[in-house]
Specification:
Length: about 400
C-alpha cells in the first residue's frame, strides 16, 4: 500500500505539472496566433504590390523573434516534463520490483517431469478459461498428451457459460437434466434456478405464453421440494402475465443479478460434479503467492542479515506462518489447546473418553502411569480409550 501511495505521489506531481504546462502553452500559443492574425490582417489591408514600409518590417521582425522565443519556451517546458515522467518510472522500480530470485528454490522446476506438470497445470487453466486455441498450442509445443476426453468437459462447460451470457438457457437446462441425479445428491439448486429463469422469461412474454408458462410450471414438481416458497412466488407472478411484471410486487424477479448468479451456481456445481475446484490450481497458486511474497521477502532479508539462510534452504517448509485469508482456507484446522500448536500428521488431534480433544503429544505428556486426567474436566481415562480425530 505504501508502495502504491509513493508512486501515486509522483504521478500526481506529473499530472499537476502537465496541467500547468498545458494551460500555459495553450494561452501563449493562442495569444501568438492572435497577434500573427492581426499582423496578417494589417498587411493585407495595405495597398497591394506596395513594398513593405519600415514600420511593417519592424513589426514582422519582432513577431518573428517573439514566435521563436515562445516556441523555445514551450519545447523547453515539454522537455522538463520528461524528467518528472522518468521519476515515476524510478519510483515504480524502487517500490515494486523486488529481487524475487532470492526466493526461488532452484529445484522447484528443474526436472523435466516437474516442467511437464507445470505445463499441464497451465494448460488446464487455459481450458477452464475457454481459451482452447492457446491450450491446444501449448499442448503441441510442450509435448503434452492431453486427451480429448480431458478437454471435453471444459469445452461443454464453456459453451454453456457462453450461452448463459447470451441469456440462452437451453444448453444449461439440457446439461442439468442429464445430471439431475448427481445434482440432487449434492443438494444443488441449479436446476430449480434454471427453470425459474425460464419460467420468468415466459411470463415476461405476456398473455400469449400463458398456456406455455402453465405447462412449464409442471416441471417444477420434479425439484420444487425445498423451494416451496419460491415456487409460490413464481405462481403468483402469473397474475400479472398480461400487464408485465414491472411495477408489480414481483418486479424483483426481473433483477439482472439472477443471471450473474446462475452462471456462478452453474460453474460451482459443474466443477464439483467433475471433481474440480472452482478456481484453477494456477489461479489459486498465483493469488496465494501474491499474498505470501511480501512477507517471505521480509523474512528472507532478516534471515540474511542474521546469516541464518541454512534454516531456509534446509527445510521444505516456510520459516514463518503466512495467513492467506479466508478465501484460501480449505480444511478445518485444530490447534492443540495445551501445546498451542496446530496439529499435523505426526501429531494428530485425539479425542479423550470424556469428549475433549487435545493433540497426541499432549496426551503422551499428560499420561501418568496408565491414566490421563483431562485438562478440561475431572474425568480420568486411559490413553487406549482415546481416539484419533480426522478433520
Ligand atoms: Zn474432558
Amino acid at each position: 500500500m505504501d508502495a502504491c501511495l509513493s508512486v501515486q505521489k509522483e504521478v500526481d506531481k506529473v499530472l499537476g505539472k502537465f496541467d500547468g504546462i498545458k494551460a500555459h502553452s495553450q494561452r501563449t500559443l493562442d495569444e501568438l496566433i492572435d497577434s500573427l492574425n492581426n499582423i496578417r490582417h494589417e498587411l493585407s489591408s495595405a495597398e497591394q504590390h506596395s513594398e513593405l514600409n519600415r514600420v511593417h518590417q519592424l513589426i514582422l521582425n519582432s513577431a518573428q523573434n517573439r514566435t521563436k522565443d515562445i516556441l523555445t519556451r514551450v519545447s523547453n517546458e515539454h522537455k522538463d516534463i520528461h524528467s518528472s515522467v522518468s521519476k515515476v518510472g524510478k519510483a515504480i522500480d524502487k517500490n515494486f520490483v523486488s529481487d524475487l530470485i532470492q526466493l526461488n528454490a532452484e529445484q522447484t522446476f528443474e526436472s523435466p517431469e516437474r516442467m511437464h506438470l507445470l505445463n499441464e497445470v497451465i494448460c488446464e487453466h487455459f481450458l477452464r478459461q475457454g481459451m482452447l486455441d492457446i491450450a491446444e498450442n501449448l499442448t503441441e509445443e510442450a509435448g503434452l498428451d492431453m486427451l480429448d476426453s480431458a478437454k471435453e468437459p471444459f469445452l461443454e462447460i464453456n459453451q454453456i457459460l457462453e450461452a448463459l451470457k447470451q441469456k440462452d438457457l437451453q444448453p444449461a437446462l439440457i446439461w442439468a437434466s442429464r445430471h439431475r441425479e448427481q445434482l440432487q445428491a449434492m443438494n444443488s439448486s441449479l436446476e430449480f434456478k434454471l427453470h425459474r429463469l425460464r419460467f420468468i422469461e415466459l411470463v415476461c412474454q405476456g398473455g400469449v405464453k400463458q398456456q406455455e408458462a402453465l405447462a412449464f410450471a409442471r416441471n417444477f414438481s420434479l425439484f420444487a421440494q425445498g423451494h416451496t416458497k419460491e415456487f409460490q412466488v413464481l405462481m403468483g407472478s402469473l397474475l400479472y402475465i398480461r400487464q408485465g411484471l414491472e411495477h408489480t410486487p414481483y418486479s424483483h424477479l426481473l433483477d439482472p443479478i439472477q443471471w450473474d448468479d446462475i452462471s456462478d451456481v452453474f460453474t460451482q456445481d459443474a466443477c464439483s460434479l467433475l471433481g474440480l475446484s472452482v478456481e484453477s490450481p494456477l489461479t489459486v497458486s498465483i493469488s496465494a503467492g501474491c499474498v505470501a511474497l511480501p512477507a517471505l521477502l521480509n523474512i528472507r532479508q532478516v534471515m540474511q542479515q542474521r546469516q541464518c539462510q541454512v534454516v531456509w534452504s534446509a527445510k521444505d517448509e516456510l520459516p514463518i506462518e503466512v495467513d492467506l485469508g479466508e478465501a484460501h482456507r480449505y480444511h478445518s484446522i485444530f490447534a492443540c489447546p495445551i501445546l498451542r500448536q496446530q496439529t499435523s500428521d505426526t501429531n494428530p488431534p485425539v479425542k479423550l473418553a470424556c469428549g475433549h480433544a487435545i493433540s497426541r503429544d499432549s496426551l503422551n505428556k499428560l499420561t501418568n502411569g496408565n491414566k490421563i486426567k483431562c485438562p478440561y474436566c475431572p474425568i480420568e481415562s486411559t490413553p487406549a480409550e482415546s481416539k484419533q480425530l480426522y478433520l
